[in-house]
Amino acid sequence: MTESQASNSNPVWQRLESLRPSLPRHIHIQRRDYNGERWYILQDKSNGRFHRLTPSAWRLISAMDGRNSLSQVLASAAHAEFYAAEDEIPTRDDLIHLLQYLHVADLLVCDLPPNTQELFARREQKKQQRWLRLLMNPLTWNIPLGNPDRLLDKLMPVARLLASRPMGIVWLLVVGYALLQVGVHWTQLTQGHLDRVLSPSNLFLLWLTYPCFKVLHELGHGLFTKVWGGQVNDCGLVFVVGTPLPYVDASAATGFQSKRQRLMVGAAGMAVELFLAALALLLWLQLPNGFLRDFLYNIIIIGGVSTLFFNGNPLMRFDGYHLLTDAFDLPNLATRANQQFSYLLRRYAYGLSGVFSPAVNYREAVLLTGYSVAAFAYRLFMLFFIILLVANYFPTLGLVIGCWLLFFQLLWPALKALNYLMSDKQLASKRARALGVTGAGVALAILLLVAVPMPMSTSVEAVLWLPDEARVKVESSGEVAQLLVVDGTTVEQGQELVRLHNPVLMANLAVQQAHLREYEARYQQAWVEDRAQAQLFEQDINAIKAEIELLQSRVVNLVVRSPSSGIFRITRQYHLPGSFLRQGDEFALIEKPDSVRVRAALLQDEIGLVRQATAGVSIKFASNPLQSIEAEMAQDIPVATRELPSQVLGAQGGGRLAVDSTHPSGTRVKEEVFLLDLALNDFVQSGRYGERAYVRFQHPAEPLAAQWYRALQQLFIRHFS
Question: Span 150-160, mean pLDDT?
Fold first, then answer.
């Protein structure tokens, strides 16, 4: 069929052929190269939106001046010398699709203006889509607050200062020095504070602080956009999990020709947060405990942890995502990644031939596919994290929101996919194959979840535990007079280790012995003269004898003996000899390599599975995390307790268990735990008692569905019982 015949047989082209379109005057076009591939960025300055065009689309648009008809536009853009390959030459279908795109984007001006009713329908459709997005995600919705351009104009001196080179050097010095302080004071930063961060009172303070902090974050984006000539025409509030967070529309930075400027606008918010967190850290280290110090710690958490793990995460469409797309020239990364995954599914699973990959080469195809899978997995993780976070403090609300989100984020997309399989016209010839492949994939996934056993384990923290019979304690206070055994010597149970001297104790014993002799003489005299008085003296004599017996036992205990057989290890060398040891002081231990134990603390939802189905136990110590040591369960304390055996297992000592911050010991936990002793096999320790250990209980393999059901059951028991 000739070109003329094709023209006559295409009714759409016949209606559009006489149009003489043009673009509005507020359109700006610039050339942009992405990984060696040329594109053209069309900026709509009326609303700040950007559109990415191929070279062939740009050729067509450049000929739309309001005087050329569509036939003339196509003829001027279809010269073969403009293109490297023949398939890049635009066709009538390409031109029609471009006109449709420009029309929907309100970028088309022609002698036959678009139907006003159709424009109204498009706007009404956008409004309905906005409410649909709100319905599908009730935890994220926004309220526009107007144009912040006038405020940003007044702050331009501040913007110029922030964008200057000296300020960049100051930022590097402050943040770099703060990072060094983090390394030096890591224990001080992590031990004892995380529990207070999650307390109800501090969570409310965080809820108030976070929006104010984000105002400065968004102000950084706006100022850096303005300082390089961009316009910021929109700002507002977006509500995330009920927390109002400000936002500004800094999309004008997309039109900056300089990549460095685009990257700096994208990083400005995080840079502001990191700088404030660094200042808060340096001030926090100088202040005593109190409200101001807790407030500064919140800023450290928000500006450090939140910035790096949320805003800086490229798997979410926040600052990190835009930095990634600009740095590596990957525009529309998330959209193209989903399109690439859809292409692979339709092309190779369903067998469709008329689909094309958005990737330009094999490397980009792998990158887009990997990003699509990783972003989906992270999105699911965040979905369940938000549900658990809300349910932890508001169980009923968490259950309602969880059901709502699961329906619209998982079940609704599944229903849309099913509708696509059943009614899409492109799948008409391959529908049986598409349904078969999809059904087989779903069946395989279900089979993997319910029938294939997967490894299962429980990981808890423990402490290298010293049994009471291995602790050498002082039973009578006194000064160290003589060390009878050298450190590291093998001793037997009952062997003398240290001799103490206590002249006060000896004097008290002598005084009581003299009193005894005196009362015995009085008793003999009273026995002859007054029997009633003699009975009273007899009672006094018995009391004095009991006191003498106690003092004599203390004198005997001035010689400290080994409580068991093993290797004698002195743990307080600086106290020996010549120093004074009080009753109850522990100054040494008896190593027993054949009975080294760790004591683990397990939560209620962990102890049941550990008791019922444990196939093996392995332990790693914090001092040597690469060495795995086999162990076996020795005994456990079946009664739940709220007292930890050591501070290292609680949040104040850097452990995982939340402790009661009002209790001074740091071992009082908020949730009852079960203590379990584990005996280490073939392990020789050298005085590292009290060290943190990481215990992994291996269980018989179970399908993932059974594991998830158990975890869900425990979750409901914990939060809704």
Answer: 88
